[in-house]
């Protein structure tokens, strides 16, 4: 009987993993990415520290059962970290795509009290460069420090800030608010998962696939080759001109 119960328990966990979610956290350093991962998983899975120096150097991956399903969270290094070279950004994207079957949702994290500058406006474009042109169809804006709203609705905050409004619109109008000081409030997590489910349904029931990443990599390589060919042609013409 014990062996049967153990076997059925393993089957139950496998079923949860099959219908699980892969969630990627993106954003600047010190804005609550890791804390949001901890809130989602309901445990201290990631190192969380309010600092301008990135705690996360590589992609950190943690999993757990959340609201009756298996959820895997990918905590990425902070965007605009001075140590993030183009090569490292590519490696971050590649490590995320090693997940199976692929990311279901990208959560772009902003604190509600952040001052939105040109840097913040560039984040969607940087994410597109890392993951491909279709990535924003699978993206949410996740606002942290929800306790700082102090009764003001996040909708009002979005409405009165044109830069923020544009960011939300680029993500299909999808957003959610977390109060990471209230990790025991599982309703905020359940609401997020329901919103992700709705987005997945709108996207045809799938995830952001490895094929999409590979297509994007091929497109980048093709563009780089075109640029190199143009440079070679220019240098050849310059050489011919100098020899005449």
TrEMBL record:
GO molecular function: GTP binding
UniProt keyword list: Coiled coil, GTP-binding, Nucleotide-binding
Domain spans labelled AIG1-type G: 18-217
Any matching Pfam family: AIG1
Keyword Nucleotide-binding: yes
PROSITE patterns: G_AIG1
Alphabetical list of SUPFAM superfamilies matching this protein: P-loop containing nucleoside triphosphate hydrolases (SSF52540)
UniProt family annotation: Belongs to the TRAFAC class TrmE-Era-EngA-EngB-Septin-like GTPase superfamily. AIG1/Toc34/Toc159-like paraseptin GTPase family. IAN subfamily.
Name this polypeptide is given: Si:ch211-254c8.3
Origin species: Sinocyclocheilus rhinocerous
Organism ancestry: Eukaryota, Metazoa, Chordata, Craniata, Vertebrata
